[in-house]
Amino acid sequence: MRRVLLLGGTGDALAIARSLPAAHVYSLAGLGRVPGDLACAVRVGGFGGVDGLVRYLCDEDIALVVDATHPYAAQMSRHAREACTIARVTLWAVRRPAWQPQPGDDWRDTADWRGIVERIAGFHRPLFTLGREPLAHLHEIPALQHWTIRCLDAHPGNERADIIDARGPFDLAGERALFDAARIDVIVSKNSGGRATEAKLAVARERGLPVVMLTRPALPDADRSFDDAVSARDALQHWLTTQ
């Protein structure tokens, strides 16, 4: 049987995974909760670089890889492109469009952690929605700042940081309540795109708060790309019926 390997971890990937029959594989990096309602196999953990992924594709008779990883998981996307080229396996990708600034937005782009630190230097109560990266810098928080960090897994904070483990989607009411409770005066965000976590940007716009936006990494081309999970899922269902 010609099998599918779905590379995921995002809500887009999960929506596709729920349509996969038992013979196919949904692969997670291991940072989030493993869904319990899937018919397909679930694999957790890395492959061991490009060579390990090539071996997996060959050993498991994978005929199609669908890259539905996070837009900032650039290394995994590069590895998938290289491994599929070597193994002569078709690669599809879900490339979620980036958010675009709207009238009233105050976005301040930066490419790395150093730039983030520089851009929040004049603020007191930043909200970080970058995932795990800020957790490595808890000991560096300036005395005049208190950080609120939202990520997928629980982690102890300290006297100058609160950690919120939460997974979207987030709505306007909930985001407004968070901004009020934590007295947020600046947001630090990845440009993830999609609707699940977009409400924070609307609240920032309402309140005239700046958003320090981490620019997206460049991603490799795929043999076929989709803007959303629905289009990818429908194309995949057609592919499965023709094999």
From TrEMBL:
GO terms for biological process: cobalamin biosynthetic process. Keywords: Cobalamin biosynthesis, Oxidoreductase. This is Cobalt-precorrin-6x reductase. It comes from the Bacteria. GO terms for molecular function: precorrin-6A reductase activity. Pathway: Cofactor biosynthesis; adenosylcobalamin biosynthesis. Pfam families: CbiJ.
